[in-house]
Amino acid sequence: MEGRAVLLLLAGCLLAPPADAATGGWTALFNGHDLSNFDIAYSSRPVDGRPASAMFEVKDGMVHTYPGQVAGTPQPSAYFQTRKAYGDFVLHIEYKWGDRKFAPRMNRLKDAGLVFHIYEDAPFSWPRGIECQIEDTDVADLWLISSRADVMVKDGHYHPHPDPLQDGQPHYAPGGQQRTFGDHGKYVRIRHAANLEHPGWNSVDVVVRGDSAVYLVNGLPDMRITGMKKWTGSGWAPLTEGKILFQAEFAEVWYRNIKIRPVKESDPR
Length: 269
What we know:
The protein has 2 helices and 18 strands. It has 269 residues and is mainly beta. Strands 1, 3, 4, 6, 10, 11, 13, 14, 15, 16 and 18 form an 11-stranded antiparallel β-sheet that branches.
């Protein structure tokens, strides 16, 4: 009987998939319980004495931005950031909009996002890197934060508006003309190709290979970037890895299922 039990145990060990295979190679960045494995900071000046962590609440396996703040009141922007740098990955996140917006962005679309390949911190500002914007109806816009990249855009749409928050920015266009965008110390925005967002929960995946990236919204590609670069102080250099942050930017949003895995040959390019 004892021998049979041992055989059954061994058989179970042989049949059970390794933990990595069982999860598809994914590693949870957000543990579903707290933000203890992230650094949390303001990206604008605080409006009172509360710490930046007050901009986030973890409940029911979700991160909730601006949990107790009254709609319409002035609020700062903030973020939670990984302590580890990542390269050659697929990042997955799911989000859902709330109802509340906050000054000074009451008259704009609800806004949030994630920044990857962070290469330099900036007190009371967004750290330098590459952003995948999560904005109501504008998901997958590219923001170059003191960084540079190549993007295919519609013919004749090569010159971004001086104010990146205004319409009139170039749109990503598969098969269009490839142009280089971005500059040291500036924010430059390239619009996504199509609105792929729907009501309720949505997913965003960022597929990164070295200095190239693809943004997917609900499983469909909506932005492709190549030649990502960082400013070194004396010139531009390839940008292939960095920390990752998730934004609270004057609008209520829920995040969940934030995870990462190594990129595969079969992943979108």
